[in-house]
Design a protein that fits this description.
The chain has a domain at 22-139 and 149-158: Four Helix Bundle (Hemerythrin (Met), subunit A) (Up-down Bundle), CATH 1.20.120. With 236 residues, it is an all-alpha fold. Helix content is 85%, strand content 0%. The chain has helices at residues 4-14, 24-43, 49-84, 86-115, 118-157, 160-172, 176-186, 192-205, 208-221, 224-235. The relative contact order is 0.14.
Length: 236
């Protein structure tokens, strides 16, 4: 531990009844983003230019979020698997390669939608919806592997303190703009205790202006009841 803030956060992690998991909260956010977008892709009126433009924006943002997430995993988590779990490293790497190829195809389908109009746009939207739905289904298995076998293997060979140190370095490497994009999808998918713990840690460890930005992003993403509850609990 390098600071009193991290020591306090580590004490909370160490006392948790849940096993340490790098992926739990961010994967909750990604599931929500993927599920919501999949449903919306199926119900959009693609003959409307403004609807097509909004779809292109949202798909592009989701693709960028997934690519950023994979970059974090490749930098901070993949090396942990290299020495003691090479089989899992190969499986995760193959999953990321397959995902990246699918994201390229999603980009192609999205561009086709952006350039289409009328009945051609309706067909382009349907093609995008079907591919994105299949991608989402396949990506769920990848996330389950990471949350399950990958984390179990890392817990077998690393202490909670070692896992925590990696987690803190990963979070500290995420630029504020990128963190805000993750917060916007994570907090609505998290339970109230997870939200409180995340923002207590952010308040203790981030400069005040950065924390205020993160909190504002979260409050905008939550419904009024959940936003009010988080504000009250942070003020208690």
């Amino acid at each position: 531990m390098t600071s009193a803030v991290e020591s306090t956060a580590f004490a909370s992690v160490e006392s948790s009844a849940l096993p340490y998991d790098f992926f739990r909260e961010v994967h909750k956010g990604l599931r929500l983003a993927l599920f919501t977008l999949t449903c919306d892709l199926g119900s959009t009126d693609y003959e409307r230019p403004e609807a097509r433009a909004e779809t292109v924006r949202r798909v592009s943002e989701t693709v960028a979020l997934l690519q950023s997430h994979h970059g974090h995993e490749d930098t901070f988590i993949a090396p942990l698997l290299e020495q003691d779990h090479p089989r899992l490293r190969a499986i995760v790497d193959a999953g990321h390669a397959e995902t990246e190829a699918d994201l390229v195809e999603i980009g192609t389908l999205t561009q086709r939608l952006a350039e289409a109009s009328g009945s051609d746009a309706v067909q382009a939207g349907l093609d995008l919806y079907r591919f994105f739905a299949l991608f989402t289904a396949q990506y769920l298995a990848h996330m389950a592997l990471e949350e399950g076998e990958v984390m179990a293997s890392l817990r077998d060979t690393m202490s909670v303190g070692e896992l925590f140190d990696v987690d803190m370095r990963l979070r500290g490497a995420v630029p504020p703009d990128t963190m805000c994009r993750f917060i916007a999808v994570m907090v609505p998918a998290m339970n109230s205790e997870e939200r409180l713990g995340m923002f207590q840690g952010m308040r203790a460890g981030a400069p005040a202006e950065i924390f205020d930005r993160f909190l504002a992003t979260a409050l905008d993403a939550l419904d009024p009841d959940d936003a009010g509850a988080l504000t009250r609990r942070l003020s208690a």
